[in-house]
Structures are given as structure tokens and as C-alpha cells.
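Weekly puzzle thread! Below is a chain. First person to post its structure in C-alpha cell form gets bragging rights.
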Amino acid sequence: MSDQDLLSGIGGGSEPQMIGDMSPLTVMQRVSAAQQPPTLPQPFPPGKLPTPPSPRVASSLAPSTRGFKIGENQSPLPQDRVYFTFDYFNNLNAAQNRRFEAPVDNLRAYRYIFGLEKTFDQGRGSIGIQLPLDTLTADSTIQGPFAKPGGTSTALNDLTIFTKYILKRNPETGSLISAGLAVTPATGPSTFAGATDLTAIHDTTVQPFIGYLWRRGDFYLHGFVAIDVPTSSRDVTMVYNDIGIGYYVYRNRDPDAVLTALVPTFEVHINDPLTHGDYNNPLDLTGTPNVINLTYGLSALIGPNSVVTFGVVTPVTGPRPFDYELLVLLNFRFGQSRGPRASLPIVGGG
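Winning reply:
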């Protein structure tokens, strides 16, 4: 079997990708005294001036600019594709906001991610880029004619460059192990969505990872193990474990069919901080809890080249980083990743 035939067997028409969970990391939102309702003066003895009130600082948690996870709309298999991811996070970090008596609530985040991946070395490896456009919306809890935090902000955030390469593969089944690296330079604004109320550690992060894919008939299992290392010790180092399973409940091998496959999936995403794990410390800007998220999804394969995926993510550990997350993934394959056979879906985010 030639290299091209081999790669066609595990590539063209057989590229699974995860949905993911894209857990937003947390940063503290600091609100100055000017944004707090003033404290009414108290009576004081004649001839004695009152002590000026100390600045009040309130905290809330919001997603940081560190938004890339290799388990989000990615596959262990190198691919030729153009892709788009939409994420919606509802009621971000509500428990922690209440704990710290934050001046904002009902935080919502919207992420629009645009990406391109291109294979090399006859499909053994690939290199890709992706760029997020982020929006953050929050409601202020402060009443009265005072300066209020919150509102809506939108900005392009950090560009990510990633590469992956197949280390070992089974030509009979398409199962494989791959490795890669993602680098996210600090190219965007210092805060998520450019929100002016946020204070964040904004640095370059490096994310080496191992990917794996195991296939048996209509069933498959895939995932990633990654460590996300910042260039600043003030930032949190994260370990990601993402695993998913899927099963083809419908296939149509007619190359002219509109709907060629339906694949329900289930994923578990474990996000562990190696540093800065004291998320209850209001002085630690990057204090991050351990988070486990469950992802449920359905992929519809349209023709030989397109995959549309819908997913919902629910956290199962506290403090919950969000109430729920909704995802829509679009992938269009080209080059040798095109194929007439029904293909597996993408691994989601986390």
C-alpha cells in the first residue's frame, strides 16, 4: 500500500474531530471606588475631620484571553480544512461573583473562531491557525446615578498557531497516535473581548499535546492530553484531559447524497490547574478551580466535504464556571481530506 493510499484510508472521508468544552479560565474584575456607591459620612466630634474612606475594590470572575484548547474543534488526525466555531457561555462564574459581592452579574460570553488547517508530508502532519472574535456582556448590580461596570465589549483576541504530526498509525483501522504543539502569542488586547473593567495577566502560552484515535467499525474513541504553559509565572499552568466517544447511527455511502452520516457523541473534559489553584484568593488574578465538563453533541455530515456539529456543555464540578455552553461547529474539507465516504465528526472543545 502506498503512502497516498494509506493516508487516504485514514484521511479522506474519515477525520473525527472533538466538539470540546472551551472552559474559560478566570481573571479578577476589579472595580475602583469611583464605580462604587459612595459611603455616607458619619457624625464626628467638632474640630476632628473624618478619616477618608479607603478605596473599595470589588471582584468578579470573567473569561481570560487564554482561550485556546487543542480539544476544541480539533482532531488527532491532520486535515485539510477551513473551519468555524461558535461558543456561547451563559451566566459565567455566578457562584464566585456572589461570593466576592461583585458589582456585575449575568455575564455572557460569545466566541466566533475562524480557522484554517493544511496538511504536509502527504498528510502525516499539518499546520494551522485560528483567530477568535470575542464578545463579553454583563449587567451591573449598582443602583443609582453612579459610574457602573458591565455593558458589552467586543474585540479580536490572541491568534493561535498549531501543528500536529502522526507518530504511529494502524493502516487497517485508521487508529493512530499523534503529537503536536500550539503557540498563542499575546497578539490581542490584554483582556477578554477588550473589556475595560477587567484586569488580566496577558502573556504568550505554549501547549504541547498528545492526540489519539481508536476506531472499530461504526464506533470510535478519541481525545487529547495537553499541558498549557504560560511564559509568566503569575499565570496559571493548566493540564487538559479530553476524551470522547461517537457512533455512526446512520451512513449513506452514495457520493451524491446530501446527508451522508449522523453521529451522536459524548465527551468528558477535565481541566486541572498545576499552579494558582487557590480560586478563593481574591488577590490571585489567575486563581483557577478544577473543572470537569460533559459535552453532548450530534454531527451531521453534508455531502463528502462538510460537517455541521451541534453541542451543549454542562459543568459537573463547583464552582461552576458557567451554567451551560452552546456550540456550533462548521468544517469544510478540501484537498486529500475530501472523500466520498461518510466520515467521523470533529472532537469538541474543552
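Puzzle host: Confirmed. Bonus trivia for everyone else. The longest strand covers residues 104-120.
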